C-alpha cells in the first residue's frame, strides 16, 4: 500500500487532503503539534506530534521515513505568541528537504496564490522563500498555490467572510477594487491527490483557481444569499484607516495567543486581491476549477451555518465585555474602598475583615479581567469567573442578605455576568 504523510493534517486544508488520499488507497500518517487537535480530527490514524518550527533534520527524517508522498499543508498566518513565520515556512521546509534528500519521495507543497519575495505581507514573503527552497531541491516536487479556499468548515478568513455576510441591517463595503477568486477545499484536495499519484507530472508550480473573480462586496452578497438571509438594503463604506486600525489591534492580540483573521497579514491580500492564473494547471492536465456558484451549491447552508455566522463576531465582543466588567469591578472596588467596606462594617463585621474582603475581591477581579484576554488562559479565566461569582452570591447572601432587596440589584446582576462567562467558555474552539 502506498504511504503518504500529511503535515498539518488537522487543519482545514490538511484534513481534506487526508480524506482525498485515503479515498485513493493511501495509508496516511499525520503530523502536527497539538495532540488535542490531532485526536479530535483523526483519532484512528498514526500521528507524529512535534513542533515543526524547532524540529531538527533527524526528527523530520523519522517523521517522513517510508513515505511515497509528503504533503505540506502546514503554515501560519502571522508571527505571534504561538507562531514564527520564518521558522515554519522556511526553516522547517529546508529541514524537510534535507531529510528527504536522496529519496524518491514526492513532495507536494501547498502554498498560496500571489506569493512573492517582495509581497506586502510577511506571510506571502516567507511562503515564497519556502517555495523557492523546495524548487531549488533535487526532490520530486510540486508547488500548488490555491486562492481563497472555501469549505464546510469555517476557520480564520472563511469564518470572517461568513460573519461579514451575516451582518444585520447593512453590509460593509471595504477594499472595493480588489478581485477575489475562490476554490472548493475538496477541489484543492483532489488536485493534491492527483499530484500524489503522479497524474500531473512533476517539478511545476500551479495556481489553483476558478476562472473569474468578484469583488469582496459581491462575494459577501453572494455568501449572504447562500446563507439564506435577505439582501441588505444599504451598504456602508468602512474607512480604510479604521480597517487598518483594527488590523493593528488584532496584531497585538496575536502576541496574547489570538489568531484573529483581522490581522494585517490577512487584510493585505484582501486589499491587493486574491487571484491566480489557471493556465498552468490546465496545461498539466488538471480539470477546470468550479466557479463560486458551483462551490456554494456543494455546501449546505443550514441553521448551524447561520447561527455560527452570527455568533462569530459576538465572541470577541463578549471577551472584551467580560474583561472590562471584571477590571472595572476591581478598580471601582479599590477606588470606593471606604464605601465598600462600610457595607460590611455596618452589618457588624470588623474593619480588618471588611478591608481584607474588599481588597482581596478587587485583586481577584482584576486578575480575572486580565487573564481572560490571554488565549491560553481564557477558558480557565471564564471558569474562574463562574466560581468567583458563585462565591460572591453565597457570601453576599450569608453576610449581607439585604442586598437581594436593593433596588439596583447588585446580587441579581451577577447572573447575566455568569451566563456571559459560560457563553465564552463554551465557544472557545479553534479547530
UniProtKB/TrEMBL annotation:
Protein name: SDR family oxidoreductase
Domain NAD(P)-binding: 8-156
PANTHER family noted in UniProt: NADH DEHYDROGENASE [UBIQUINONE] 1 ALPHA SUBCOMPLEX SUBUNIT 9, MITOCHONDRIAL (PTHR12126:SF11), NADH-UBIQUINONE OXIDOREDUCTASE 39 KDA SUBUNIT-RELATED (PTHR12126)
Lineage: Bacteria, Pseudomonadati, Pseudomonadota, Alphaproteobacteria, Hyphomicrobiales
Keyword entries, A-Z: Membrane, Transmembrane, Transmembrane helix
SUPFAM superfamilies: NAD(P)-binding Rossmann-fold domains (SSF51735)
Keyword Ribosomal protein on entry: no
Keyword Transmembrane helix: yes
Entries under Gene3D superfamilies matching the protein: NAD(P)-binding Rossmann-like Domain (3.40.50.720)
InterPro entries: ComplexI_NDUFA9_subunit (IPR051207), DoxX-like (IPR025695), NAD(P)-bd_dom (IPR016040), NAD(P)-bd_dom_sf (IPR036291)
Residue ranges crossing the lipid bilayer per the database entry: 311-337, 349-374, 381-399, 411-428
Top-level division of the source organism's lineage: Bacteria
